[in-house]
Amino acid sequence: MCIYWHPPEHQLARPAAVTFGLERLEELDLATLVADRDVYIQDRGDLASFNKLSDDEIIVPGSPPFFSPITRRTEILLDAVNYDLQPRFPRYIYAFEPLLRAIEASSPGFNLFEATEMVSNASNLRKLFHIFQNRRRMVERYDLEWRRGVLFLSKWTDDPSLNSSMGHGAGFEKATCRYAESDSPLLHRSASHHRVVRYSFASLELIVQSEVDAHYCACNHTPAPAPLPTPKHPRRRSSTSPRTLKPPSLSSSPSIFAALALDDPGESPTFAASHPPTTTTLKPTVLKKLRIHRLGRDVPSHCLLEVKTHRAGMQTRGFAPEAQLYFSRRALLYTAAHRAGVFVPEGVVVDKGRDLGVWEGESQAVLGRMGAFLGLLRRRAGEMAAEGRERLSLVCESDGLGGPGVKAVLYVGQGGRLVPGDI
After folding, report:
1. 351: CB partners within 8 A, 6+ apart
2. 3-state DSSP call for residue 49?
3. Angle, CA of 235, 239 and 242, to the nearest 5°
4. Cβ contact 292:101 at 8 Å
5. Distance (Å, rounded) from C-alpha 394 to C-alpha 151?
6. How far is CA 210 from each of CA 96, 229, 322, rounded to the nearest angstrom?
7. Cys-Cys link to 67, which of 162, 216, 289, 420 (CB 3.0-4.6 A)?
8. Please, what sign has the CA dihedral across residues 169, 173, 174, 176?
9. Chain-centre distance of CA 279, in angstroms?
């Protein structure tokens, strides 16, 4: 009997499944790609938040659980064999319907198709960053859908390794990120909390969804977020020439980096966050085909926390939270190290806002190349949509040698649908 854990069969089968059943269209020309210059995220704004509840239900605005650091030695099982974890994650017919319905409910005056050029999530952008960084070999597939001038870029919705974990992270989050007893049973039953923000990146106007692990603060949060006003100006269409932007000032920029200080970041042993306030519950409503439960509270972005785990003494190339924090527009980070699944109470909540500003400057070469690629991808997707191909698959691959060894190929395939027909 082997004492070591082995990856499940679906993870071993993933490399062969990436291009199975796809018809190759073209390889994008990355050799002549001219990197954008002065690539900084600007004009950030919150749009919506929601919790995933079931295959046809979400909670708006929802709220994330509260983070309580461990106070004693704690042993956590491997996620792959931890049967106390979420047995099944919600799967939506249209991958971006929760995002779209949450925006409709939270920001009714916001016209996505007039103010946006691309919709994606922070995890996709993080993976693309690491592909163009090219420090390790990676193969990633994405589903694309063009709708009314907007490119929707999703993770591969049929990925056999989707929602699987090979570490202890999900188990650690379950042990430390919890709702209060006074919170709605629907929140307790929900699978995850998500935030939707908009910002300018390189030459594109983006809407980005990201999953939130928890919140950690001593704030009194208001019941629900206020709607954003209708944009006064149409969106800026990207062109073949990159925009030149000035670096944001940490003291005056409206970005998250300008206001990310808590009175106490959690490093003091006397710091104690307030008990989450009682949830305000409203009557559930039905918008289109997705049932929306109107309950939750507004938790400002500077209170949201990213929780990361890793093996002690192994700050590997894979453990790099900066890109995830950057594209999510968050800065609070808690890292927990373990030895064979045993965690000790050594971690602290750290505000990485200033560090992320430095990281952004140091990563300009990769961000510039990634920004130029997204512009090229959107142009080609728009041209193919004009020919009748509105749904595509994208496979990106890096050779891990640190040079220009990155490939991006477009395919025709039957990936998951991303946008409902009535949008």
Report:
1. 260, 261, 262, 265, 331, 332
2. strand
3. 105
4. yes
5. 12
6. 12, 22, 14
7. 216
8. positive
9. 25
In the block, tokens 């919709």 appear at: 119
Domain extent listing, the chain: 9-66+87-167+179-255+267-299+368-412
Q: Work out whether the CA dihedral 9, 7, 135, 144 comes out positive or negative.
A: positive
CA 381/CA 388 separation, integer angstroms: 11
- Interatomic CA distance for residues 110 and 289, integer angstroms: 21
pTM above 0.70, yes or no: yes
Which pair of tokens denotes residue 191? Answer: 């699978």
Express each pLDDT in 51-98 by its tens digit: 999 999 999 999 999 999 999 999 998 888 777 776 678 999 999 999
> What Å distances lie between residue 269 and 28, 260, 266, 273, 343, CA to CA?
53, 20, 7, 12, 18
Tokens of 101: 């319905």
Residue 355's φ and ψ, nearest 5 degrees, are -60, -35
Q: Express each pLDDT in 268-280 by its tens digit.
A: 333 233 333 344 4
C-alpha to C-alpha distances, 326 to 12, 55, 77, 352, 364, nearest whole angstrom: 31, 29, 30, 10, 13
